[in-house]
Amino acid sequence: MSYSPNRFGSWRQAGRYAARILHGEKPADLPVQQATNVELVINVKTAKALGLTIPPTLLARADEVIQ
User: Fold this and answer.
1) Among 45, 49, 61, 56, CA closest to 3
2) What's CA 63's distance to the chain center, in Å?
3) Cβ(58)–Cβ(38) under 8 Å?
4) Alpha-carbon separation of residue 1 from 39, 40, 42, 54 (angstroms)
5) Are 35 and 9 in contact (CB under 8 A)?
6) What residues have CB less than 8 Å from 38, skipping those under 6 apart?
7) Is 4 helix (H, G, I), strand (E, B) or coil?
8) Is 42 exposed, middle or buried (CB count within 10 Å of its CB: 0-12, 13-18, 19+)?
9) pLDDT digit of tens for each residue in the chain (67 aa)?
10) For residues 2 and 38, what is the distance between their CA atoms, to the nearest angstrom?
């Protein structure tokens, strides 16, 4: 199970930063930003191999379920 920033959102933000730098802004002047979109990924196959049971309510909340 993993709860982490959305990787596509992170790539998009990196592109925005690169564009700002290419347009002349100094990297040191750019703000540090924290991810606002996160996703929950659950690997059911690994959970079963470890003898864990994932509640259906948690599976329903997951953004991605790996079978």
Assistant:
1) 61
2) 10
3) no
4) 10, 7, 4, 10
5) yes
6) 3, 4, 5, 6
7) strand
8) buried
9) 998 998 888 899 999 999 999 999 999 999 998 888 899 999 999 999 999 999 999 999 999 999 9
10) 10
Residue-level pLDDT at 64: 93
According to DSSP, the β-strands at 64-66 and 2-5 are unpaired
What are the structure tokens assigned to 29, written together? 């002047």
The first and second tokens of residue 60, run together, are 């329903």
Phi, psi (rounded to 5 degrees) for 48: -65, -40
d(CA 54, CA 50): 11
